Amino acid sequence: xxxxxxxxxxxxxxxxxxxxxxxxxxxxxxxxxxxxxxxxxxxxxxxxxxxxxxxxxxxxxxxxxxxxxxxxxxxxxxxxxxxxxxxxxxxxxxxxxxxxxxxxxxxxxxxxxxxxxxxxxxxxxxxxxx
Length: 130
What we know:
Blueprint: H1 16-35, E1 47-48, E2 58-62, E3 68-70, E4 73-75, H2 80-87, E5 95-100, H3 106-118, E6 122-125, E7 128-129
């Protein structure tokens, strides 16, 4: 007496639907990542092996065209000190992060450090880690 059923279940797994989902997710993330644009100043930071701390209150940047920025806002050199003081006004331990292009002369970075020193603001120099 043979009582086996006619419908036989095969233990095979079809991967085609899973690969379709993976490719759709890949395409979605590729398109979504190109639409995100970071609002940042394009600088080539000098390289260093040490790491900077992330206790940033205000970011002061100088690009290779000698334009000064305080937290992405362009400021003239004569108004830089007033803008920095306005940004760090209510902080207990104010800190500024100095970001400069690697081709900028040192005197422009020292100018920002002098502003920080005169107003008793801690300053850190941002560098690109290797």
